[in-house]
Amino acid sequence: GIQVEQSPPDLILQEGANSTLRCNFSDSVNNLQWFHQNPWGQLINLFYIPSGTKQNGRLSATTVATERYSLLYISSSQTTDSGVYFCAVIQGGSEKLVFGKGTKLTVNP
Amino acid sequence: DGGITQSPKYLFRKEGQNVTLSCEQNLNHDAMYWYRQDPGQGLRLIYYSQIVNDFQKGDIAEGYSVSREKKESFPLTVTSAQKNPTAFYLCASSILIGTGGHEQYFGPGTRLTVT
Predict the structure, then answer these.
(1) What is the distance between the alpha carbons of residues B59 and B78, in angstroms, rounded to a whole number?
(2) For residue B76, what pLDDT is reported?
(3) Confidence tier at B99 by pLDDT (50, 70, 90)
(4) Which end of chain B is more exposed for a tag (fewer CB within 10 A), N or C?
(5) Shortest Cα distance from B83 to chain A (angstroms)?
(6) Cβ neighbourhood burial of A101 (10 Å; 0-12, 13-18, 19+)
(7) What are the C-alpha distances in Å from B96 to residues A31, B52, B71?
(8) What string of DSSP letters covers B64-113?
């Protein structure tokens, strides 16, 4: 099956710093989503982005499908950005969303 | 408000008992899913259903059962055959995107502890 690798596994920032999270996948996909899991466990949809670039406030994401990677950018980080960020993909012909192991982000005041 | 609800938020059971986790959605989504998350790990798919009265096994279906009698509801039963049932269980539903993909949305989860 398709493999999803996220890096870095852990990231510690000072408030106000910028960061880039990476998601590599091993095969072509027709669905890629980024999620933020907050400290209470809730998974929040950030982006549905199988290709191209999207922006939402301080967050933006880019997926280069031909090179099998996606990037999540967080600018001017805030303590509320802390949590785990997951990338998840659906391979062509499948209905299953496959998750990476996540990047744990800690933003210190 | 539209969304996905899961109940209860916390559930405690004795080993050997079956337990059913509730998942309801009012988003009019056709597909629904159950995932399991263990500490420090990503999510793994247990079962999914693309239409009422039909469902398929995911990657870790052993020890679990589901039903899909209504579009809005997809309950998960954790049976006594599940060897390590203590985990965080997340339900999701999805909508078909115009390009042919599916965007999934998640409920708040149920933390199950079996002792």
Answers:
(1) 15
(2) 97
(3) low
(4) N
(5) 23
(6) middle
(7) 11, 16, 15
(8) EEE--SBTTB--EEE-TT-S---EEEEEEEEEE-TTS-EEEEE---EEEE
